[in-house]
Structure formats: structure tokens, C-alpha cells
Amino acid sequence: MQAFQVTGTGKAPELVELDRPSPREGQVLIRIHACGLNFADLLMVKGSYQETPETPFTLGMEVAGEVVAQGEGVTTPAIGTRVAVFGGSGGLAEYGCFPAALCVGLPDTMSYSDAAAFQVAYGTSHVALTRRAKLQQGETLLVTGAAGGVGLTAVELGHLMGAKVIAAARGAEKLEVAKVAGANHLIDTETQDLRAEVKALGGADVVYDAVGGDQFTAALRACRPEARILSIGFASGDVPKIAANHLLVKNITVMGFYWGGYLRFRPDVLTESLATLMAWHAQGKLHPHISHELPLAQAGDGLELLRTRRSTGKVVITP
Predict the structure, then answer these.
(1) How far is CA 214 from the centre of its chain?
(2) What is residue 200's predicted lDDT score, i.e. its pLDDT?
(3) Rounded to two decimals, what is the model's pTM?
């Protein structure tokens, strides 16, 4: 089979030929139909992600496909079941072995591509907004990087939860995507002052920041009293330094959020969240946005779309 692997830290990933793996105890073998790319894949290439496997390893954190074999002790999911799984790596390949316990069955209404674009992006935004920030109906939600993989789902879910959503992104094309997802107000970060524009709209109760850097600082300065700031990621490459005195004056809370971390200490949180999200998708309430679908041979091009921030929503690779 073919797989898109990192063969050494700092080396460009490459397409390699491997033997098809056999599932170990507790695992299933999945014929992979689709794999969603994430910003974390870029960090893994550089060896700077907090959970980068030892080289060589196959990139690809979230996959969707069909179970074709079971390891010892596995009874479910059954062979032939359509599933999605967040495996952390191993998804950019034609086949992969993953823990059976992490597999989520797909509703008939969900395509493999939608499923591969679904778990991390929607799961991150749903748990962050509901469990961590406790976003309330009528509150104002500011989303930076609002046309990106996770940012766009935050716009969509914030709108669904009854918040007034301010979407900040670069350029008219990306802002139009955020508008379609439910944004009430649009800020072009290339031409407009983020802090001034948000303050003119009355300030933010919740900030969902996937960009970091100057946008985090501007968003902090535009917060209302008792605002909650979710630190989701640092697509700008700049991890912001937080002025604690600004938090004190307005009683602001800054909270970190890493969706995959719950797999270690509260996997039930993710399972319950995904069940809710899958039901909303089946009811037609959620509409995954995939800007590019590429074959496995073009996985490198897909990563470049993420690196240069030329994609909107998700990039999906279809082996």
C-alpha cells in the first residue's frame, strides 16, 4: 500500500510503499476512504507538535473508512462498518490500524469526506464553546481565523447556539465563507483594525482564537467584563504573551483548549460531544465545508494549502 510518511525530523514528507498492516489486539484495520488535514500535521513535520510520533511515521490525524479486519478481542465495530476515528497519525495511507474503541459509526447521511472533515473541527469548537466557555444565547462570540478548519465550525456552532457571531478573517473571499456559515458581522483583518471594530460592536463576551499573535492581543483588548478567551491554536506562528493586569481589570478568563487531550483523561466528553454533533448533522443542522479534495499523491499540496492559509474550511485527502 501507499502511505505519506515523515521519514526524519525536518525532512519533507514523501509517498512510500509499505506492507499492508495487520491489526493487533484491540485494533481494527480500516480501508481509508478519506483523511482530513490539520494544522497539527504541519507541526509534526517540523517535530514541534506536542504529540509527534518517532520517525518514520505516517501523517494524518483523522480518518473515515470501512472496517476490513479485526484484531484479537474485537467484536465491534463489525467488518464492513463505516467508521470515523481520530488516531493522531496514520491516516494518510490506503489502510491503517486504529483502536476499535475510538471508532465512531457513521450515519447513512454522512459521506466519508464529510466524516474526515468532521471530528477535530466540530469536536474542538463544540466542546470549547459548550464545556469550557459556556457560551450563552445572546452573547457575542468573536472568532479569529474564521474561515479556517476549526474557526469556520466555531462560527457555525456559535450561530446555532444563538450567539451574535463576529467573524475575523483575511480577505473578502474568506469572509463570504464565514457569512454563509452564519456570521452576523465580518472583519477583514487585512484592512480593518480588529480591536476598534469589535469595540464598536459592543465588545466580545467569548473569544475563540485559533490565530494567536497580534490578533489575540487585539481581541483581549476588545473584551467585555467577565469575557472568556479560548486559546485554540497559533496559526500565525506567534504564541502571544498575556498581560495579566488586563485580565485583572476586566475579570477576564483565558483558557487553553486541546480537544485531543480529553482522550487521555475524559474520553467520555468527546464521545458525548460527537454523538450530539452526528445527530445535528443527520438533522441537517451542520454543513461541513471542504474547500479541496485531493488524492494521496497530492497530500503535499494539501499541506501547502494549509501552510499558506489558502484553504477555507477543511482540506481532505482521498486515498
Answers:
(1) 21
(2) 98
(3) 0.88
